[in-house]
Amino acid sequence: MHDDLSRLAIFGGVPSFSEKLHVGRPNIGNHERLLARIGDILNRRWLSNNGPCVQELEQRIAELAGVRHCIAMCNATVALEILIRALGLTGEVVVPSFTFIATAHALQWQGITPVFCDVDPKTHNLDPKRVAQALTPRTSGIIGVHLWGRACDVAALSEIASARGVKLIFDAAHAFGCSYRGDTIGRFGDAEVFSFHATKFFNSFEGGAVVTNNDDLARKIRLMMNFGFAGYDDVVELGTNGKMTEACAAMGLENLLHLTDFVQTNRNNYEHYRRELARIPGLSLLRFDEQEKNNYQYVVIEVDENTTRVSRDQLVEILWAENVLARRYFYPGCHRMEPYRTQFPDVAAILPETERLVQRVLVVPTGTAVTSDDITRLCGIVEMVVRNGAEVRRRLEQRRTSGAAE
User: Fold this and answer.
1) Are residues 233 and 274 both part of a single domain?
2) What's the rounded Cα separation, in Å, for the pair 333 and 176?
3) Cα angle vertex 192, ends 163, 357, to 5°?
4) Interatomic CA distance for residues 377 and 242, integer angstroms
5) How far apart are CA 398 and CA 11, in angstroms?
6) Positive/negative CA dihedral, 313, 315, 317, 323
7) What range defines the domain where residue 263 resides?
8) Is residue 4 part of a domain?
């Protein structure tokens, strides 16, 4: 017996959620304490330029990551760009295409060619074997991305980088508070970059940071993110403006007090999704290594269309109609965005796993703005759609055909 599909919003029903449910709605700590911190900033009239809040935040993050240096910046993209320049990268740098576009843009913006490399289908991270094959005499570095907070194969990538004499850095935008072989992410490669964007589980309104144990590199980055100033009227390095404001640092300091609560909420949500989705055929939930620390920031599902009978994209369309703003990460892959699809029109042929994942991956809402009831209701929608997959697909295609005819 089929369900009444007219209840689905896409077929004329009332949306299940009156307010939009976002993948990454900001987590915010104690409002009163945050406003008090900002009040202190206003009273001091020290709003930027390495103020006391920024200095304290850098110290706290360095301690959490177990590194000597944390350089907080206005956002993670600028942090990555400055790190790339400080390391003197040139020519080509190997990166995954299955990542946020900023990873590639940070290179291209500076005239460096991103060489897109395929990923391991199980981890969604760079495949070290493919990385070794992608290196050329023009290669100056490798950027690994700790996707979903699950660490890259740091040991294998480090061995490759060392053997070939190239730099190794990690885009750790997803991985704040996570670990690799028991060691906190942040201390690997030449340096790592965190993101504190509003959608991250730990945010500073907007922000990012470079963390490293390399004293000389840290000194150079500090110069470069402040126009190259070594003191008043003393510019000793080419630089730009990457400074974090005091208000952003205040938000970061407040949210650091709630890290454990944020992670526990994410984990509870993840476990709830795991239980609900287990009974729905054709959906596989990305798992986390229980031996490692993880922030459980992303709930990642792979959709097997052969089983569900509806595609990932059709499922997204249905959920959006219900006000569930699920996301197709990282569709369609950096290599299919400009300027890369024009520069490298044939690169998809060497990225089969990336091509597969961008058609299957679905990320659903979590965080402190999502309740247990929300998850149950969301998964109920998905279960009904999959249970009636063939009919749902038929109606969607009929709807699209009739719409085109009009």
Assistant:
1) no
2) 23
3) 85
4) 42
5) 11
6) negative
7) 258-405
8) no
Residue 188 has phi, psi (to 5 degrees) of: -100, 160
**DSSP annotation of 290:** T
62 and 173 part of one domain: yes
Q: 50-76 pLDDT, tens per residue?
A: 999 999 999 999 999 999 999 999 999
299 within 8 A of 324, measured Cβ to Cβ: no
Distance CA(72)–CA(249), nearest Å, equals: 9
Last residue of a domain, one of 212, 236, 256: 256
Q: How many CA atoms lie within 13 A of 51 on its CB side?
A: 19
DSSP 8: S
> Which helix (DSSP H) or strand (DSSP E) does residue 316 occupy?
helix 312-321
Residues linked to residue 241 through DSSP beta bridges, in sequence order: 226
List the structure tokens of 264: 């526990």
Q: Could you tell me if 243 and 310 lie in one domain?
A: no
CATH of the domain at 242: 3.40.640.10
Query: CA 31, 32, 33, 37 torsion: positive or negative?
Result: positive
* CA 177 – CA 350 distance, rounded (Å): 33
In this structure, is residue 275 part of a structural domain?
A: yes
* Domain finish residue from 225, 240, 256: 256
Amino acid symbol at 276: E
Contacts for 93-96: CB closer than 8 Å, 24+ residues apart: 93/139, 93/140, 93/141, 93/142, 93/143, 94/126, 94/131, 94/134, 94/135, 94/139, 94/141, 94/142, 94/143, 95/142, 95/143, 95/145, 95/334, 96/125, 96/126, 96/144, 96/145, 96/147, 96/354
- The answer to whether residue 162 is domain-embedded is yes
Query: Domain count of the chain?
Result: 2
Per residue in 349-395, pLDDT (tens digit) is 999 999 999 999 999 999 999 999 999 999 999 999 999 999 999 99
pLDDT greater than 80 at residue 103: yes
Within-domain flag for 311: yes
Could you tell me if 213 and 287 lie in one domain? no
- Residue from 214, 196, 212 nearest 204 by CA: 196
What separation in angstroms does the CA of 39 have from each of 31, 99, 167, 292, 299?
A: 12, 38, 43, 38, 36
